[in-house]
Design goal:
Blueprint (H helix, E strand, L loop, with lengths): L1 H24 L1 H9 L5 H21 L6 H20 L2 H17 L1 H20 L2
Helix pairs in contact: 1-2, 1-3, 1-6, 3-4
Length: 129
């Protein structure tokens, strides 16, 4: 179980770094991908389930990471916010995304830096412990 959790954390870190790269290299495609969030009930649920899996992986693997308490809290925040979003009607999530995503896309480079930093932080917390 712990090795699966570690793999989930590494995959999530690499995904964030890949997202950052996509935003910088192919901003139009990245924008289309980001704007598809919460477009349907199925996408909404899939997004939240993946978020819970990543959060659970971080929670389970956090004792083996640098700053275990920080990552345990971060993992719980991911899981709890995903659960909260699953309890809300997906259309509320869609309306929120329609308001927030254009601003985020306007500041794509800053978002890419944040995604890269978080991905790198996750990977270094796994590899340096």
């Amino acid at each position: 179980m712990i090795s699966i959790a570690g793999a989930i954390v590494v995959i999530f870190g690499l995904w964030l770094i890949g997202l950052a790269g996509a935003i910088l290299v192919a901003p139009g495609r990245a924008e289309a991908f980001l704007m598809a969030f919460a477009r349907s009930a199925r996408v909404h649920v899939a997004e939240q389930v993946l978020r819970m899996i990543a959060g659970a992986g971080i929670i389970i693997f956090s004792p083996l990471m640098t700053f275990p308490a920080v990552f345990r809290v971060f993992g719980w925040l991911m899981v709890l916010t995903a659960m909260g979003l699953l309890l809300l009607p997906w259309r509320w999530h869609r309306r929120f995304a329609e308001r927030v995503m254009p601003r985020l896309i306007r500041h794509g480079k800053l978002f890419a830096i944040g995604a890269f930093a978080l991905g790198a932080l996750l990977l270094s917390a796994v590899l340096l412990r």
